[in-house]
Amino acid sequence: MTGRRVRAVRLGPRSVGALTLVSAVGIAAFGWPLFAEAGSGLSAHAQDAPWLFAALLVLLVGVVAATVSESGLGPKAVAMLGVLAATGAALRPIGAGTAGIEPMFFLMVLSGRVLGPGFGFVLGAVTMFASALLTGGVGPWMPFQMLSMAWFTMGAGLLPGPDRLRGRGELLMLAAYGFVASFGYGTIMNLAGWPFMDSLTSSVAFDPDGTLAGNLARFLAYCLATSLGWDLGRAAVTVVLTLTLGPALLKALRRATRRAAFEASVTFEAPRHS
Fold first, then answer.
1. 45 vs 224: which has the higher pLDDT
2. Is the pTM of this model over 0.85?
């Protein structure tokens, strides 16, 4: 027996608008090296653009978080957000430097699935921010990581059948999503760091004067040479943990959301005097 899905955050028109805006700017921030015209001012500042986009993304992610919070991120949801973000941040360093073993990704997938896309977006961004502070990984790449993980976790909340699909079918869907999204995360993060490479020292670096086809070929070669092993390790760990620990974690998260009763209204009554 399955009941109606309880969402920790219900997205209103302003939240959807903010998410759309930050996603559009994020796509431009990640994809500009491939679409900037040769000789344009943006291409001429290939080393500066990531810093400018990073500063902009920090502001936009903050706007989205504030907008979503205004739409209904109550005390119970904030408490769960803190617990899950702290857990994810603590899990991330476990496999640091070891072939992409990052167990936090499966936690993000399952949390986004249970708690919905709005909560998932905020959770992904907050988790990566906390992780960066914990590991000392603060730099121009951090806002890109925050947005990428926010997309990754939000996407899990947008998967079909949230109220009906359960059991093995749901686990297989989540494992497949985690596998694909793990490669997607690695690929878009490559776009964030790729322009920093010096085109004079590498045949796979971004060429500000190159064509779209030429830079696309360079980028694909860059991904194969630098991150394929990490992405494969991340994807494999996410699939294994989802299939093995997923049933217990999904059950625990759903029980927690029911007990928290995020959507239940709270009323205060004046004390009765005898």
1. 224
2. no
